Amino acid sequence: MKTVRPISRAACLSGIAALVVLVAAALSATPASGGDSATITFTKVFKQSYPEYVEIKISETGAATYDIRQLDEQPAPQPFQVSHALVDKVFQLVAQLHHFEGLDLDVHRRIASLGQKTFRYEKGGEVHETVFNYTLDATATQLLDIFEGLGRQQVDLDNLQRSMRYDRLGVNDALMRIEADYNGKLFPEPERLLPTLDQLAADDKYLDIARQRARSLAGRIRNSRT
User: The pTM is what?
Assistant: First the structure.
């Protein structure tokens, strides 16, 4: 009969250590179900307008994307960043709306089409959304103003940057549009415009009137933050 030698204490401890390492590796490779970042998506489809399609996604981390285009154009989401203060405001409003779960925002009246709007909440496997044309809900209106303002802000900024690259004579017109929207308090985060405004104000290849307008608007934005 073959003699079975007892396992040494050192070998036993070594085996336990190896098992602990394997378990730790398995746990680290498994995503934590509670660690998923929530995302709010706003979509607006308004045919025969400009733009016809707007999609803005904001995560709890502040990372965001926008896709603003005509419906016959290919999707092209672009990244941008949202401040923590604005992210907190968005998610507070969404919480007040119960993350859109079972929420009906539409007035259900015969009114003109103002574009089909969708709010969507996602976190892990939890998904809720609500679709509406027009709402009287004050909280939803605040949220809508933020998302539409972000869209307007990005369209204006893209137009200015495009003019700076390809149409220097159109730069002042683009600035006038930005100035009008800023005066109307449509921009949720006008400070996002500052790097482009500063670049324009410092570059003598643009018309003096445009550079002065950019410098003046940048100063107003900075002063409003103090």
Answer: 0.82
